[in-house]
């Protein structure tokens, strides 16, 4: 005889002995659970499956509660969801692991680093390129100019140098770019105007096309690339051999470009709104900041200097004795370009010390090798012309308290003024957006967005013109986000709105060697391969690319150095899945973590205590299904963990079974990842 | 010829701990033939060791704080006036001693002594009735589970009685684990036969075949006395019920608090990891190895002979509408007369704390009932009657009977932290809300008493505590937040002061306190300097707050009470 009861207001019937969870499942109501596995007896431990008895107000674990006649059960209400969220947040608060690898987390474009490194390591560069292009549509350029956020967070840093991640993009693109083509969906009929053919604009156009829209890219210049072309010097990113090849791919995808179109001049913002279903503004930051001192107009603006060199095909006149003011990557680009144009001396003037310089360390080192001199803790106070030369009046500085950016603020030293003489003074201090009238801007002059990338109805913005000058990969990420938002808002594409949560062990700087989990069957302990770089003497005299792409053999060796930090279970983990669905936050509840620690003594199975939910499914699977009793609970309370008798390693025979690995709802029991071939 | 017929020495654990053993030895050596008998506990911890001289006319004289020296022996044997013990006048008349009537009066391991004082009369009466009538008698008595839950005992019995199986299990829960609670220990040590009589009565009424006492191993004397009593029962064939011999066994617990929870207790009996499981099925349907199993607390069984002797209706005359009979409380904390008391249900908290316990009015902030699972009730509410339902309404519980009096010089946040320290350690680790939730609450409380509290901590505790109550698998987790909720309800200002002003008004939390010597009172005797373990007191008698650990050694040593704990000045 059936038991009738109400489930979310619907009258349903349960067979005797059937649990609320089972009845819900049968009726299409999804209740999350972590500790219930139908192959083994009930545990009732996770309490993620709670439902509420509306009559008594009591919360019941639906995996173990059988309904009673006439019961009124709430399985989906906000109170129930809140209880589940709390249970999940509590579990997350004791969870130690890395859902995603720290390299992926650090990448602004969130590229699947571990996966493309593995593919490249195995020699499958076409596969690697496919993975890279899911997040980075400009791998040739990024593979050369990226400041490598990923490598800075690579856990190999604890042992020495990081894996040469960026080189994988470069070789994969160099090898396979011309033969590679995405599967393009049919055009939906929606058209999107993209204003700006820089990294953000190109990225937006790329993903819009993949979402089925027809993008048209407008640009004020004569060729595509934006700062890639007109900002980054030839020696770092060759234009004809690399950038043009990269852009050609966009044309092959059917993306149309219209050049010489400048917003507010011959391109009307209002008309774009009429002609297109949406507009993406990816205008970049093309206005150079001045030195904010008398005579600043006598200085050459850094990005203009670089653009002129590109437009002259690297045949611009020798700037003579050159002073570059600024400490960022643009300043390094200007200084090194001036050297290549034959400048007899180049001095870089920066108002803080070398530690505070925003430029990449590698860039500074190479600039120095090429003969650039540095004058730190010096600020310009005036620029004037004297006897056909420029005279830069300077003042010495000292470091004071840290400012909002965390860097120590330079403070003037009284009566320390001195003068520097030069033929050319380049101001590479900063850039800003030059938004045409009619577009809302924020306090700092960037385009103001409502939320995400949306500026106003059907208008989106991406890249440097929103948040100020940033890196190529950040521009790409921003363009991708704008494309996704348009896809959701205007194209009606169903993009999964649930952002997977990411638990992280934290930055390697705060970890010790003991914290590192080697998730692969083998990890090489070789040193990092060296990048073939032209000697400084040759570099100084030519705009030829300074480095050579690493070889496949080198990258196979690099790939074997990858620890494989991400969780083996990141795509299947039930904790991650439910926590993401319930809007959980791994940092919502803070506190001590139980002792983590990992047992990797078995050849193919890894036991990672930090990820264990103490649901006991593995214990029961081994005893009730496999009949072996190899696993059991140890200690009590918060220190509870699952271990083996006397802490012995699992026997080799477990390789053939693995029932516990398959049953584990998280990555606490996992197959080791394959190491590179 | 001495007027003394025999001498009783309180030799329960508490007596022995206070030095009763040498007293007993010396008394034996000097009594000149007067029998010296070891008895259980009279419940007056503060007066141990105690010796009772029973006179030939049946009256008796009790001596308190007896020392094993000749002077005390002579004093007792000559019935001298020194050290005579009388029940404090304010306490007398408030107690109602029924369950503990024989505690400290009979030799615990003397079967005949028990029988001579009315022991096993209840069982005899039960055996003259049908099992159903016995169950009914308990139903009529209104007895509710004394372990803390308060489930009507008669109904529980009727569930087991209704089972038509050959084998039924009856368990006496003697895993008394609340800090500060010792009612069950005292009862088992002092009158083990009374507990066993209750169990045998229950076995007769319900048809139970296997009787088990699950007793914590930390109670060796109770186990010893019970073992002796069980063999005496067997010798006297009292274990033959309903025409067959029941088995009585003792299972020693291994020290896990959670094993006092009935499903965890059953798992432990089965030799498994002591963790609770979801109910239903309830143990009376499926318990130990799947057999119908009924679990009652020691004190519950201790009440049964009383009910059977005087009848359920008579028993029910004592107490309130929902709570009948008497209740044992282990009184501890900031009061004059700590000890074991038996009071009628419905007595007010104030009567227990001030009159029976002798606590000073105006010096008490609250009382914690129900041990770590209970709640703090503020002194303003001391007119609350002690019964299951009134205490529950205040967010506390009757619990098994621990009652801790909290004086004004104690910090309520620290008190909550103390109890959470216990419960989070004792969590079995199975369910999420208890394992992680209690730990997170404990960490938050630690942060607050440590001066690192954040304004959002109160919100966190307020949010998480009811969720743990609602979401934990067993009673341990479901009640663990009670001390936090109760202190948040009645002493929220103390939490706010700790967090917002770094002030502990009780001057207890070391992170917010400095030690200070009043120069006007100080006589510069140097005792504080000599006693300071970290040399924090200079020759000028000023305490260096950076070196001082706030250990109170100086404060305790000062003969002039010139040293005080004062609020730390913010830097």
* General form of chain B: globular
Strand order within the widest beta sheet of chain A: 8-7-6-9-22-21
* Alpha-beta content class of chain A: alpha/beta
- Give the tally of structural domains of chain A: 5
Unreliable sequence segments of chain B: none
CATH superfamily of the largest domain in chain A: FAD/NAD(P)-binding domain
Strand line-up in the sheet with most strands of chain B: 2-1-3-4-5
For the largest interface in this structure, which chains are involved and how many residues does each contribute? A-B, 33 and 29 residues
Number of strands of chain B: 18
CATH architecture of the largest domain in chain B: 3-Layer(aba) Sandwich
Gyration radius over CA of chain A: 30 Å
Question: In percent, how much strand structure appears in the residues of chain B?
Answer: 15-25%
Pairing-aware structural class of the strands and helices of chain B? alpha/beta
Largest sheet of chain B: 5 strands, mixed
**What's the quaternary structure here?**
heterodimer
Instruction: Please give the CATH class of the largest domain in chain B.
Output: Alpha Beta
Helix count of chain B, per DSSP? 23
Key attributes of the depicted protein:
heterodimer; A: 677 residues; alpha/beta; Ubiquitin-like (UB roll); Fumarate Reductase Iron-sulfur Protein, Chain B, domain 2; FAD/NAD(P)-binding domain; 29 strands; 30% helix; globular; B: alpha/beta; Rossmann fold; 5 domains; 23 helices
Structure overview:
The complex is a heterodimer of chains A (677) and B (571). Chain A has 677 residues and is of the alpha/beta class. Chain A folds into five domains: 74 residues, Ubiquitin-like (UB roll), CATH 3.10.20.740; 119 residues, Fumarate Reductase Iron-sulfur Protein, Chain B, domain 2; 155 residues, FAD/NAD(P)-binding domain (3-Layer(bba) Sandwich); 140 residues, FAD/NAD(P)-binding domain (3-Layer(bba) Sandwich), CATH 3.50.50; 78 residues, Alpha-Beta Plaits, CATH 3.30.70. Helices cover 30% and strands 18% of the residues of chain A. Chain A has 23 helices and 29 strands. A six-stranded mixed β-sheet of chain A has the order 8-7-6-9-22-21, sandwiched between helices. Chain A has a five-stranded mixed β-sheet with strand order 2-1-5-3-4, with helices on both faces. In chain A, strands 11-19-12-13-14 form a five-stranded parallel β-sheet. In chain A, a hairpin with a 5-residue loop joins strand 16 and strand 17. Chain A starts with a strand and ends in a 6-residue tail after the last strand. Chain B has 571 residues and is an alpha/beta fold. In chain B, the strands form five sheets. A five-stranded mixed β-sheet of chain B has the order 2-1-3-4-5. In chain B, a hairpin with a 2-residue loop joins strand 8 and strand 9. The longest helix of chain B is centred in the C-terminal third of the chain and has 18 residues. The mean pLDDT of chain B is 94. Classes of the chains: A alpha/beta (677), B alpha/beta (571). Chains A and B meet through helix 2 of A and helix 16, helix 17 and helix 18 of B.
